[in-house]
Specification:
Elements (H helix, E strand, L loop, with lengths): L1 H20 L2
Length: 23
Amino acid sequence: MTFIVVKYSFVVIWRNKHIQFGI
């Protein structure tokens, strides 16, 4: 379960970075 939570958090951070760069 922990792996899924970590992976989900990583995806959210990755999406936020792309939104900041406007990509």
